[in-house]
Amino acid sequence: MSPPGSESMSNVTTYKVTGMSCGHCEGAVSSELSEIEGVSAVQAAADTGLVTVTFTEEPDDEAVRAAVDEAGYELVGRA
Fold first, then answer.
1. Backbone angles phi, psi at 25, to 5 degrees
2. Residue 43 reports pLDDT greater than 70
3. pLDDT > 60? residue 23
4. How far is CA 77 from the centre of its chain?
5. CA nearest 12: which of 59, 67, 68?
6. How far apart are CA 53 and CA 38, in angstroms?
7. How many C-beta atoms lie closer than 10 Å to residue 69's C-beta?
8. CA nearest 37: which of 63, 13, 5?
9. Whole-model pTM?
10. Which has the closest alpha carbon to 43: 56, 53, 34?
11. What is the DSSP string of the chain?
């Protein structure tokens, strides 16, 4: 059991990604982002181009950019 006040805080950040058009795209982006250290959850929506990432630590925008690029899409920036 953790002492009071020592619970880890989650940082939820939403990004705009271009090029996603289907469930496969969502899965590809989510899979790459899930590999980033400190990412605890990813939700991608092709219809809006928004990707919501939950971090257990400070968001690393450059790591997010690299992962989205690796998946074959373009990170526009934070939404």
1. -60, -45
2. yes
3. yes
4. 11
5. 59
6. 10
7. 12
8. 63
9. 0.87
10. 53
11. -PPTT-PPPPEEEEEEEES--SHHHHHHHHHHHHTSTTEEEEEEETTTTEEEEEESSS--HHHHHHHHHHHT-EEEEE-
How crowded is the C-beta side of 7, counted as CA atoms within 13 Å?
A: 5
Rounded to whole angstroms, how far apart are CA atoms 49 and 63?
18
* Structure tokens that stand for 23 in this block: 């469930």
Q: Mean pLDDT across the stretch 36-45?
A: 97
The total number of residues shown for the chain amounts to 79
Tokens 């982006």 map to which residue?
29
